[in-house]
Specification:
The structure is a single chain. By secondary structure, this protein is α/β, with parallel strands linked by helices. The chain folds into two domains: 123 residues, Aconitase, domain 4, CATH 3.20.19; 177 residues, no CATH class. Helix content is 42%, strand content 17%. It contains 18 helices and 15 strands. The strands form two sheets. Strands 7-6-5-1-2-3-4-8 form an eight-stranded mixed beta sheet, sandwiched between helices. Strands 13-12-11-10-9-14-15 form a seven-stranded parallel beta sheet, with helices on both faces. The longest helix is centred in the C-terminal third of the chain and has 24 residues. The termini are far apart. The C terminus is likely disordered.
């Protein structure tokens, strides 16, 4: 009798398998990502904000045509991805990026990308230890970066002197800002936690709310209506808030490059929004700070924006100088959202005063009761209470055992 031969199931090849989402520009890629996707992009020196957006999108791997850490400075993005358990492969080059088609199923194993078991791109795999080692090495190049940073700051101040130092060219929003606190919200790292931390301040102080680009949607999602929305004319559609949010705001300010024509705001006007133009080379979030400072805000609270040295360099953008000089300009007024809970504990409510008064009264009575006069008062009070109870008992109707209606 011939026994049937049992077929063995094929062994799956090693590596991480998923759908490739390919885009050279990371900003355009982020809205298309779904949990489990493998992000294939070209992003030199991955910054922390972008890395956190990739983690939030649920990607399992990031395949980068450029180096994750070039060594120019200690960028913070790769550490965020490594801590989240995302597989990191970089330096596959432009040819490798072109060989991976968007939407195809790929497999990544030992820094090599396979399509239908055929290798199409190869690079370098980074783990958490590699990231830490390269970060330490990159920090040795800070001196060169700071020299470039100083030069760029000088050039920016020369171009933006009238706006930054004298407030010339700033629009006049209809929202009253003078003498009021202002909260500027940017969709940055840990913005949700920071917004939650300042809820008491928002509820009790009723500040002016400025949402910078997607920061306006962050405010709406948290249940607040932004008073002012500040946009960048050069930003992608994915970075702009919805039309509903724009129409709900009292003022919409658009940051445009100097000398830009009216066409950059025509689209908003067709949507029924009449934007105010702000011509400057500063970034949108810096423009919001400059606007609040020039309108004489009492204090400016920044949500989603940080200003440590590592974070300055991590941004690695043309607006680095504008951020530095803007912080110097608004320094006396600017407070980071993380500091607000330590500095502001909320208003004193009537119940707080009643509790203090009650505690004081109890303490006073306790102190008086141990004095001779207090002892006499206590004896008199006890006698009065005894007489009152005796009087009430005698005056009450007598009820026999059969009830009051017998």
């Amino acid at each position: 009798m011939k026994l049937p031969v049992r077929q063995r199931s094929p062994i799956a090849p090693p590596g991480l398998v998923g759908t490739a989402r390919v885009e050279r520009r990371t900003r355009s890629l982020l809205p298309r990502l779904r949990p489990g996707d493998l992000a294939v992009l070209d992003h030199l020196d991955m910054d922390r904000t972008t890395a956190q957006a990739l983690v939030d999108a649920g990607v399992t791997a990031v395949v980068n045509a450029s180096p994750m850490i070039s060594g120019r400075y200690a960028n913070l993005g790769p550490q965020v991805l490594a801590d989240a358990g995302v597989l990191l492969v970089d330096r596959i080059g432009a040819d490798g990026l072109a060989a991976i088609k968007d939407g195809t199923t790929i497999r990544v194993h030992e820094a090599t990308v396979y399509v239908d078991d055929e290798p199409v791109a190869s690079g370098r795999e980074l783990d958490a230890g590699d990231v830490r080692a390269e970060m330490e090495q990159a920090r040795t190049g800070l001196a060169t970066q700071l020299e470039t940073f100083t030069h760029n700051s000088t050039e920016f101040l020369r171009r933006e002197e009238d706006l930054l130092l004298h407030g010339r060219g700033l629009p006049r929003p209809s929202t009253r800002i003078a003498g009021r606190p202002v909260v500027v919200v940017v969709a940055g790292h840990e913005h949700e936690d920071e917004l939650t931390a300042v809820r008491a301040f928002l509820r009790e102080q009723q500040p002016v709310l400025i949402g910078v680009e997607r920061g306006a949607e962050v405010l709406r999602a948290a249940g607040y209506r932004p008073d002012i929305v500040l946009l960048d004319a050069r930003a992608d559609e994915s970075d702009r808030p919805s039309v509903k949010t724009l129409r709900a705001a009292r003022d919409v300010v658009v940051r445009v490059d100097r000398g830009a024509d009216r066409a950059v705001t025509d689209q908003l006007e067709r949507l029924g929004v009449r934007p105010l133009r702000l011509e400057t080379g500063a970034t949108p979030e810096d423009s919001a700070l400059i606007l609040a400072d020039a309108c004489d805000a009492s204090v400016i609270v920044g949500v989603g924006m940080h200003a440590t040295l590592d974070e300055f360099l991590d941004r690695q953008r043309p607006g680095l100088a504008s951020t530095y000089l803007t912080r110097l300009k608004v320094g006396p007024r600017l407070v980071d959202a993380t500091a607000v809970p330590r500095l502001y504990s909320g208003r004193v409510r009537p119940r707080h005063l009643y509790l203090v008064m009650l505690a004081g009264l109890v303490a006073m009575l306790a102190a008086i009761s141990v004095t001779p006069v207090g002892g006499e008062w206590l004896d008199s009070l006890q006698a009065a209470v005894t007489d009152l109870v005796h009087t009430l008992v005698i005056a009450s109707p007598v009820v026999n055992a059969q009830g009051p209606f017998s």
